[in-house]
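Slack export, channel: ligand-projects

TW: morning all. Re-posting the request from yesterday since it got buried. We need the structure predicted with the small molecule present, not the apo form. The ligand is zinc ion; the SMILES is in the block with the sequence. No rush, but it would help planning for next week.
GE: picking it up
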Amino acid sequence: MKQFNGTYGCPWCLHKGVRIEKGRGSVNAYHYESSPSPLRSAVQTVRDCTEAVENDAPVHGIKGPSELMLMQLFDCVMGYCIDYLHCVLLGVTRCFVGLWFDSRHHVQTYYIGRQVNTVDEKLLSIKPPNAITRAPRSIAKTRAHWKGSEYMNWLLYYSQPCLTGVLPREYLLHWVLIVHSMPILLSKSISPEDLQNATIRIHKFVLFTEVLYGRENMTFNIHQLIHIPDCVKNWGLSGDIQHFCLNQTMDCC
Ligand SMILES: [Zn+2]
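GE: finished. pasting the full token output, ligand included:
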């Protein structure tokens, strides 16, 4: 299928995306839809696939068949799970840290690069327990080299206390929506009520990303967040995966 930056680039739903200018080029922005586009299904995807081959043109972003479709029990939509490391940590979390601290955003109301030393002072004073193997590192001096596990610690543990009193209140309240959702979605067990609450928060987070940061920042990774609750339901995007990544993978990324 087409990549995330093409029309109909979401592998989970039929959000078409909209082409908008950003910097010197353009991006496929995934604006928040109050009536979400239909989810993809394996049956529909096979149909799109057939039509794409017959007409030699992509249908709903699908270009042609995959050999994985030959596997009888494999669902070519729900058989995949969102990549927590690249979507949430190195995608969404790194993107927001950049929006807050990169000097190219200095005219924006959410820019807090001038207070980076205040944030660093709070961050470097945190003494994490042994379960967290890396000590916090300076945002000002080392952010360009942060690993996935450092973005995870920032998202889950450090960002809320470090940004309190620095990031303008409406932006902080917005960020807290994801800070409070992810631990629920990553937990080893989850009740239907908790999943529902996390889903509502994630939707609010995505909607208000567009309101507060503009459509040009509605990236594919931001859009993918709304599909995480379904991945949790289907796969249990879970503490087990998080634990595995933390120990095996993230320090390499
Ligand atoms: Zn989608």
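GE: first-pass observations. The longest strand covers residues 18-22. Residues 84-252 form one domain.
TW: perfect, thank you
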